[in-house]
Amino acid sequence: MADGAGSPAYLVGLLLAGRRVVVVGAGRVAARRVPRLVEAGAVVEVIAPAVRPDLQALADSGALTVRTRRYRAGDLAGAWYALALTDAAEVNAAVVAEAEAWHTFCVRADRADEGSAWTPASGHAEGVTVATITSHDPLRARRIRDRLVEVVVGEGL
């Protein structure tokens, strides 16, 4: 991309209601992303050897399914979207490779450029959702997101 042209990502809003989403890993990043997937109506399945209490509480409420085990080849069959959020680079790479074989978009948390999708910094205000993606600067994306939310609230847009 030309200097100053922005992110190479093509922004799109995924409509995931009723669609299977597989999240491999159940740590801090999953705890931030999974609730929004549930809110979007996705049929979320979390696969991880150990699950945070907040994610387990969502599973106990019936909002998602948890598979307390390691990722296995074939876990992404039928998934529309996948997130590789483990601390193990080799597991994330395997998830991305399987997603690619299934033509399933996949976010890779540890090496974003090796996935096929990026998660924007998003915020909500006054019935508006704003999202920003930068090239390799998530902190800047969050600052821009926060400013856009302030503008929406402040302007009553």
UniProtKB/TrEMBL annotation:
Pathway: Porphyrin-containing compound metabolism; siroheme biosynthesis; sirohydrochlorin from precorrin-2: step 1/1. GO terms for molecular function: ferrochelatase activity; precorrin-2 dehydrogenase activity. The keyword Disulfide bond does not apply. Keywords: NAD, Oxidoreductase, Porphyrin biosynthesis. It catalyses: precorrin-2 + NAD(+) = sirohydrochlorin + NADH + 2 H(+). SUPFAM superfamilies: NAD(P)-binding Rossmann-fold domains. InterPro entries: Met8-like, NAD(P)-bd_dom_sf, Sirohaem_synthase_N. One of its GO terms (biological process) is siroheme biosynthetic process. Gene3D superfamilies: NAD(P)-binding Rossmann-like Domain. Its EC number is 1.3.1.76. The keyword Oxidoreductase applies. This is precorrin-2 dehydrogenase. It comes from Micropruina glycogenica.
